[in-house]
Design goal:
- By secondary structure, this protein is of the alpha+beta class.
- It folds into two domains: about 5-145 and about 165-175 and about 225-305, no CATH class; about 175-195 and about 200-220.
- Helices cover about 15% and strands about 20% of the residues.
- An eleven-stranded antiparallel beta sheet has the order 12-5-4-3-2-8-1-9-10-11-13. A two-stranded antiparallel ribbon has the order 6-7.
- A hairpin with a 6-residue loop joins β6 (about 115-120) and β7 (about 125).
- It starts with 5 loop residues before the first strand and ends in a 5-residue tail after the last strand.
- InterPro entries: PDCD2_C.
- This is Programmed cell death protein 2 putative.
- Pfam families: PDCD2_C.
- One of its GO terms (cellular component) is nucleus.
């Protein structure tokens, strides 16, 4: 990844564009970087999760020459989980024209995790019996037929389904200076009344007067269609003053204080129709990572903080 803030945007994925581990994309099934793929088990409730997106984020470290984040959502406990995997230099991915997954196991058509069962009437693979049951109503209409990808569609054609439609995520550097944003933000805050409660402002209106929310909107306004922001060891954009952690979380493996790396913005939901397809909702998902990118070539959990729009 480049230095500075990188913004991500949603684009349609074409049929000929085959998903691969070094492609930034959302929806469909995960494309695994390394071979040691874990079982699909939500760390909070142990139920199977659904794939949301993957982000290719290599670092200039020996062990992180190739590096991918995977974001999952659990439809049972409604929690989000981020896995990270990395490979050192010297693998097949070093070749300029190589972009296939090196995982050879069959993968669940719902989430992309290794399969352990199949449809009883055909060879369609699933990671577990729950995902087989989860897909039963939709699958019985096409049982035995070749699998078809669900490419992103216009919002007026979106409908509830078992996994998210596929989209491409393209990245561009943020195109305005931070100094200009801060001056604009300061002027907005100076014009605010310092005591909202005395003015009788409704709780729903606090969203408009919260300095954190104003800062969020001021920065996002430069590229309103952005759905993702990336900056290793940068600072996240929060959507509200409460629920901001005092300190970044610690790495669950080495104990070092994690650094901010990337976040998903609420525009992502609308741009990918996740609210319609999977009934997913959030304000922002902030992803931290170990500053040393520890964990070897295992798939490791990285800490996240999720803010919602309620109770701002």
């Amino acid at each position: 990844m480049e230095d500075g803030i990188i913004c991500g945007f949603i684009e349609e994925l074409q049929e000929e564009e085959v998903p691969n581990p070094i492609m930034n994309r959302s929806g469909g099934c995960a494309s695994w970087l390394g071979k040691k793929v874990p079982n699909n088990s939500c760390p909070y409730c142990q139920k199977p999760m659904l794939f949301m997106l993957q982000l290719y984020a290599p670092l200039e470290m020996v062990q992180s020459y190739h590096r991918v984040f995977y974001l999952f959502h659990c439809p049972f406990c409604l929690k989000f989980t981020v896995l990270r995997n990395q490979l050192p230099e010297g693998t097949l991915y070093d070749k300029e024209d190589f972009c296939e997954s090196i995982v050879t196991e069959e993968q669940c058509i719902i989430c992309g995790f290794p399969s352990s069962t199949h449809c009883p009437d055909c060879t369609t693979p699933y990671c577990c019996s729950l995902h087989c049951l989860y897909d039963r109503e939709e699958h019985k209409l096409k049982c035995g037929q070749p699998l078809q990808r669900k490419l992103g569609r216009s919002r007026d054609k979106a409908k509830p389904q078992k996994n998210a439609s596929e989209y491409l995520i393209v990245t561009e550097p943020e195109n305005e200076l931070i100094e200009k944003e801060d001056v604009q933000l300061k002027k907005v805050i100076e014009n605010m009344h310092p005591d909202n409660e005395d003015l009788g402002i409704k709780e729903s209106d606090l969203q408009q007067s919260d300095p954190v929310w104003i800062k969020f909107n001021t920065k996002i306004a430069k590229d309103p269609s952005q759905v993702l922001r990336y900056q290793f060891n940068g600072k996240p954009l929060w959507i509200k003053s409460n629920d901001i952690p005092q300190h970044p979380p610690s790495c669950p493996r080495c104990g070092k204080q994690c650094v901010f790396e990337w976040q998903l913005l609420p525009q992502f939901i609308y741009a990918t129709n996740l609210d319609i397809e999977l009934n997913i909702d959030f304000g922002t998902i902030v992803v931290y990572s170990c500053p040393d990118s520890c964990g070897g070539d295992d798939y490791v959990n990285e800490p996240i903080v999720v803010q919602y729009f309620d109770c701002i």
